[in-house]
Amino acid sequence: MLESQASPYNDAIRLLARREYSRAELEARLMAKGYDDEDVAACLERLAEEKLQSDARFSEHFIRSRVGRGQGPLKILAELGNRGIAGEFARSALAEYEASEAVDWYWLACDTLSRRFSSPGDSPRERARRERFLAGRGFDFEQVRHALSHAWDA
């Protein structure tokens, strides 16, 4: 049963009720509230044991939401790293998601580009603007080139 007073566990439950958090994000939030290192560590272990917090589940939800927003693999990996998901774990989670959802990054780049721009652009400056847009969204060079060539195909 939950205690009625403030505790790292209660605060973590309130946070997790709204959305998934990575372990590192949750730790930072709880530490910012002034809880003791040992109490926070024990809380995070308890949450993991009770399967209330999972970096794997967080990564899956995060990747799904970012793909839905039209973001590419490079940006997704960078943002996972910013949220405390280790590089190898992030790459593995992305590979699992790609396999289970059959993500086509080339198609996603085309779709994202065609939603933002109505044509490939008439001048080199306009084409460069479209390239920067996709690169900023986290698509690699090959995906950008493909999208510029095929985004407006019928």
Automatic annotation (TrEMBL):
GO terms for cellular component: cytoplasm. PANTHER family: REGULATORY PROTEIN RECX FAMILY PROTEIN. Pfam families: RecX_HTH1, RecX_HTH2, RecX_HTH3. The gene is recX. Residues 9-47 form the RecX first three-helical domain. It is found in: Cytoplasm. Residues 109-148 form the RecX third three-helical domain. The lineage of its organism: Bacteria, Pseudomonadati, Pseudomonadota, Gammaproteobacteria, Oceanospirillales. Residues 54-94 form the RecX second three-helical domain. This is Regulatory protein RecX. The keyword Methyltransferase does not apply. InterPro entries: RecX_HTH_1st (IPR053926), RecX_HTH_2nd (IPR053924), RecX_HTH_3rd (IPR053925), Regulatory_RecX (IPR003783), WH-like_DNA-bd_sf (IPR036388). Keywords: Cytoplasm.
